[in-house]
Sequence to fold (386 residues):
Amino acid sequence: MAKDTDDHDAALESRIASGLHFADKETGAVIPPIHLATTYARDTDYALPDPGVGYSRDQNPTYRVPERMLAALEAGADALLFASGMAAATAVFRALTPGDRIVVPDVMYWGLRHWIKTFAETWGLERVTYTTADPDSLVAAITPGTRLVWVETPSNPLWDTTDLARAAELAHAAGALLAVDSTVATPVHTQPIRLGADIVMHAATKALNGHSDVLAGALVCRERNDFWARIATERGEGGAVCGAFEAWLLQRGMRTLFLRQRRASDSAQAIAEALQAHPKVERVRYPGLVDDPGHSVAAKQMHDGFGSMLSFMVRGGRDAALAVAGRLRLFASATSLGGVESLVEHRATIEGPDSPIPDNLLRLSVGIEVSDDLIADLTQALDALD
Ligand SMILES: *Cc1c(COP(=O)(O)O)cnc(C)c1O
Fold:
């Protein structure tokens, strides 16, 4: 009989490093196997040997370790893996019923903002937006009868902070569920369920996997209720399932989440401070800066740092910003975030003409390189502006 050595009293970081002390029951292997089978044979009584595991669109045993790790990381009751962050997020909205009222941020992950707008129109959802830069707008937006409040904090790419405990109180008082896109905060810095959230969403493609080589998404719930069951059905029947190899890579990536994320977050803080002191920089947005509008709330709900994402506005407008991006050597000019390698992105180019993002803004995803090297790279690129 294999030992169950997952010690719930140990630090989360200790438990996650070993995949919750996984050991394969048959072989003792300390790393879980990948199950590539799409179908599973029944026994002589026509029962499935592993209940629920019959066809891999419904369930894949490879998901078990990463899903348990996700539930532990977010202090939730259950977790579901999806094919991408978008597949996870959209499953939440598809579990709503036409006529439901939703409250969503004005500034958030661009792809999801665009999808929600179109989906709300076709699915008949009443969409109310709140302003991430104005926390009081949430009070007016969440009216009685609201079904779902969606929050992203810190929110892409200005990193405004939304007070999760307050959002949960407002949502619950109105009879709504609170769902949080916590991709940027990661469970290393914030655990929304502990602050009252009902559902946490992750683009696991980003920091959870951490190596820019897996597309995956995840949802974690506070409790298994009817809404969660609808989401699980949506995954199985809608078929937006994670590949077995991706699920396996994700459990491997998550084992080093704390190491990577703490290092990147410490560097992001140092970079934000260095950029703030540079004459060619107009403004830096990072919740770890004491003068950032979201800092006091962020200091309350984030721990072990303020994350690996920051943005800065370059003096001289769009052309100056693009020139800086072009001169950077350690930061690759690429979209996405949360990988071990640092990236820079000009969001206004990516989002197009209806983007609310200033065109002199560069977004940085800080990796695990030496922070002095990253600061030197940014400094040389900014110094070269005339
Ligand atoms: C990337 C991202 C998503 C979408 O995730 P995909 O895996 O690309 O589908 C959603 N929210 C945030 C904050 C993201 O960064």
The first helix runs from residue 12 to 17. The first strand starts at residue 78 and ends at 82. The chain has a mean pLDDT of 96.
